[in-house]
């Protein structure tokens, strides 16, 4: 088998022309499209990473905001508990003071009424004593009559009181 140089050269030239045509009309646009596709994919990857980082940042901010809101709510609840306890204590103290004041006023009123009743009773007793003495003086009574008069006046005094 002999090697034919002319066929080899023609094949080489044909192959070169074919390569040039493929490169110009097939590979060039194909490589351009592939480069555009690669840059688009790279851009989408970087955008996705930026979005992921932003989402993580926002998630952390939201977690912190939730923790802060929970802490604020807990503080408000504790403050409300303290305030309500203080108000309840104040209300109880005021109620006790008012009850003591009313009790003292009632005791004073009772004492005043008692004093008035005792004074009125003393007046009645002294008036009856004078009346009994005058009746005893009017008629000399024996011991039995005197006891009857005393019992009668005691009944009158008991009925008037």
How would you describe the overall organization of this protein?
With 161 residues, this protein is mostly helical. The chain has a domain at 5-113. It contains two helices and no strands. The longest helix has 134 residues, at 5-138. The chain is rod-shaped.
List keywords for this structure.
single chain, mainly alpha, 2 helices
> What percent of residues are in strands?
under 5%
Structural class computed from helices and strand pairing: mainly alpha
The largest sheet is:
none
Spatial separation of the terminal alpha carbons? 164 Å
How confident is the prediction overall: mean pLDDT?
Answer: 86
What gyration radius follows from the Cα positions, in whole Å?
61 Å
What general form does the structure show?
A: rod-shaped
Number of strands: 0
Helical amount among residues, as a percent range? over 70%
Order of helices and strands: HH
Poorly predicted runs are: none
SSE layout and pairing:
Layout: H1 5-138, H2 143-160
Helix pairs in contact: 1-2
Short description:
This protein has helices at residues 5-138, 143-160. The protein is an all-alpha fold and 161 residues long.
């Amino acid at each position: 088998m002999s090697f034919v140089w002319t066929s080899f050269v023609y094949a080489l030239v044909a192959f070169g022309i074919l390569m040039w045509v493929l490169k110009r009309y097939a590979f060039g646009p194909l490589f351009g499209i592939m480069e555009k596709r690669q840059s688009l994919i790279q851009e989408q990857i970087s955008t996705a990473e930026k979005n992921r980082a932003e989402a993580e940042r926002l998630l952390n901010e939201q977690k912190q905001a939730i923790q802060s809101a929970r802490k604020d709510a807990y503080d408000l609840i504790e403050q409300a508990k303290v305030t309500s306890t203080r108000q309840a204590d104040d209300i109880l103290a005021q109620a006790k003071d008012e009850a003591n004041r009313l009790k003292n006023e009632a005791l004073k009123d009772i004492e005043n009424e008692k004093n008035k009743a005792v004074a009125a009773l003393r007046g009645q007793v002294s008036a009856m004593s004078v009346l009994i003495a005058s009746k005893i003086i009017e008629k000399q009574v024996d011991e039995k009559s005197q006891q009857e008069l005393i019992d009668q006046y005691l009944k009158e005094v008991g009925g008037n009181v």
